[in-house]
Write a structure and sequence with these properties.
The protein is an alpha/beta fold. The chain contains 9 helices and 8 strands. Strands 1-2-4-3-5-6-7-8 form an 8-stranded mixed beta sheet, sandwiched between helices. Helix 5 packs antiparallel against helix 6. The longest helix has 21 residues.
Amino acid sequence: MFDPPDYTVVDQEGLARTMFFPRPDWRPPPSGATDHMVQVEDEVGVACRLYACAPTAPSLLFFHGNGEVVSDYDAVAPLYIAAGINLFVADYRDYGLSGGHPTFSSMIADAHAVARAFHGHLDQGGYRERRFVMGRSLGAHAAVELAAHYPDHFQGLIIESGTASITRMVNDLAAAGKADLAEELERRHIAKLQAIRVPSLLIHGTWDTLVAIDRAYALYETLTTPEKRLVPIAGAGHNDILWTRMAEYFAAIRDLVQP
């Protein structure tokens, strides 16, 4: 068990304002995909899209990067389906068809509602219970939140091009004269990461100039789950990691999600 961090202080101090780049872009779901609006607050919904492979396939709840929307994954989802994986992609507030305004604490809180909707829809559709959570870049924060809280509901965690670090926000909070709050926030956040017990896979490009691979190694060292793996993708940057060495990328994912 761990004491959940109170991330509202991050919003109150305006420390996460540059994390989000909402886009209103939306396209109708392609054949075989379905849209789902998850209620996260009164009159506020978060848009999600399910790209179905088969009820017998493992399912992946996916939180994307800060400049993306679910319909961007119309081009990526066929690759997951070809790999034998159901893909459920979630937006953040004010992204795509989602309402509200994104904050760091709401992103973390909304992840729980999205997870409940993800499991509820799959249960209703008769999908198997082998389910995983994945976060790309910014989405790493939502993914580790769920992996830490629901080890019985997810069979594994995948982080792509992300670190789930709050060091910059902690340092900014301390610089604002709130060192005690900063220290407590960092302590609880690290305890949350160390509480993750599900098998964990980190995939990171060696040429990532936005989130240096050293930060992925730091997350790897912080995680205490006995089953963890870091896969460096040689020559890949932050946004081309899937396309640079696609076979290696999906081989690592399949090794985790396939029984």
